[in-house]
Amino acid sequence: MVDILAQNRLEVDKAIIDGGPIIPMNKFLLDLSINYRIKQAHSMKKGSRLLKYILGRTFYPK
Fold first, then answer.
1. Domain ranges across the chain
2. Burial (CB count within 10 angstroms: exposed 0-12, middle 13-18, buried 19+), residue 46
3. Whole-structure pTM value
4. Which of the 8 DSSP states describes residue 20?
5. Which pLDDT score, from 0 to 100, does residue 6 have?
6. Rounded-to-10 torsion of CA 36, 48, 57, 20
7. Closest Cα to residue 17, out of 30, 4, 31?
8. Per-residue model confidence as pLDDT tens digits over 18-32
9. C-alpha separations of 51 from 15, 16, 33, 45 in Å
10. Residue 21, SS3 per DSSP
């Protein structure tokens, strides 16, 4: 979608672009990031008190 908008071939008044910027990572950092997110997702499923506390102090709803 960003590529389409960058080409300026379509007239777009507003666009919502969801997702962070993608940057190249070496295999070690990519594996580290993926494993961290997987562990974080498992903790959320188990009802981690630390994650509930951290997310409760942000703008995320319960």
1. 26-62
2. exposed
3. 0.45
4. P
5. 76
6. 30
7. 4
8. 766 677 888 998 899
9. 32, 28, 17, 10
10. coil
